[in-house]
Amino acid sequence: APAAGAKPLVPGTPFLVTIPMTSPDVTAPTSDDTTWLYDIWAYPKNDVLDVKKILKTDPAQMFGDQMTYTISSHVPYDVDGSAIDTYVIEDDLDPALSFVSANSLILVDNTGAELVKFLPGSDYTVTPAAGIVTNGPPVTWTLTPAALKTIHDLNPPKGSADPEMRIEAEVTVRVDAYRDGKPGAIPNAASLTTKFATNTTSTKVTSPPVDVDYGRIKLTKVDATATAATLPGAVFDLYAADPSSSGSTPIAQGLTTGAGGVLTIDGLLYDEYWLVETKAPDHYELEPAPIHLTAAMFQTANTDDPDTSAAQGEIAVTVTNIPLSVFPMPFTGGTGTAMWWALGAVVLGGGSFLALHLTKKKRRATA
């Protein structure tokens, strides 16, 4: 069995060695060339096989959004002219993901430069063929004999100065739900199965999993003067960028606290968010500043501790509202400013009239 951590190998072509043998150096004979060689060194011709999966795009921001992965797989060197006769890439999607599309399959050199763009049908088959498929179906690319011949014609023998080649497949998926119904990581890994024509068995290698984490925000609205009093009816917009920055737009709008003053927003990437209150509960002041939440605030521990306010994969935040005063003053430039200017003018006018009336009355009394 391979040692722990050892990389999978593609078996080399079998070869025959006779013992003893004469010296192979016929171009520069020496006195030793007439003797038999009993110490024979045979060097392994196996090739290390690997496959890796990476996110090509930013991860999906929330449930219903899409993201694209690139699966990069090693093309084994030809060994003694033996060609690859099996090459299958498989992406076993997690049930929390839906297949959207298999976008491309290309052959690249070790710098990432494209050598060949394979064509669906003639060069490879892919399943599922088309259309959105839910519940994490396996996505499989199988190279045809035509594509394998193209690889063989370009593939240098092991030990040559030519760089190695890789095949890159792209797949777009949609995030639909939590894994097993619980917030946390959605892992995803790909595999490669390959075989040379001279080998009787194939070799399979699996990539390290790529995790993308999703959780929820749980906000509770309470009275600032009596925190036991919860407040339904507060309305928020959710941003994934600072709302004060140019071009920032909400990713969700009209999110309202319900019974118990609780607002739960599910299916969010562990990321940075801002909640902006757009409507306060009746008889309460509007929260003037955005509520800033960071990725580090998502609870990553799996805990059932009743003293912990946040469950796994959750941000739990309590936000207070100040009750309106009897005569609430408006914000500068806000609705109602004109009314207060008018009221101030009436008060000042009334004061001036009263002062003038008292002055005239005093003059009559002294006349």
Commentary on this structure:
- It is a single chain.
- By secondary structure, the protein is mainly β.
- It is built from two helices and 21 strands.
- The strands form five sheets. It has a five-stranded antiparallel β-sheet, with no helix packed on it.
- Strand 14 and strand 15 form a beta hairpin.
- The longest helix is centred in the last third of the chain and has 30 residues, at 337-366.
The gist of it:
Helix content is 11%, strand content 37%. The chain is mostly beta strands and 367 residues long.
Task: Show the helix and strand layout.
Blueprint: E1 9-10, E2 47-48, E3 51-55, E4 66-75, E5 84-92, E6 97-109, E7 114-117, E8 124-127, E9 138-143, H1 145-154, E10 165-175, E11 184-188, E12 190-196, E13 203-206, E14 210-223, E15 226-230, E16 235-239, E17 252-256, E18 262-269, E19 273-279, E20 291-293, E21 314-321, H2 337-366
Parallel strand pairs: 14-21
Antiparallel strand pairs: 1-2, 3-4, 4-10, 5-9, 5-12, 6-7, 6-10, 8-9, 11-14, 12-13, 14-15, 14-18, 16-17, 16-19, 19-20
- How does the major sheet shape up? 5 strands, antiparallel
Question: Uncertain regions: pLDDT < 50 for 5+ in a row?
Answer: 1-6, 303-308
What class would the helix/strand composition place it in? mainly beta
Q: Looking across the biggest beta sheet, what order are the strands in? A: 3-4-10-6-7
What's the count of strands? 21
Binned, the helix content reads: 10-25%
Q: What's the helix-strand series? A: EEEEEEEEEHEEEEEEEEEEEEH
Rounded radius of gyration (Å): 36 Å
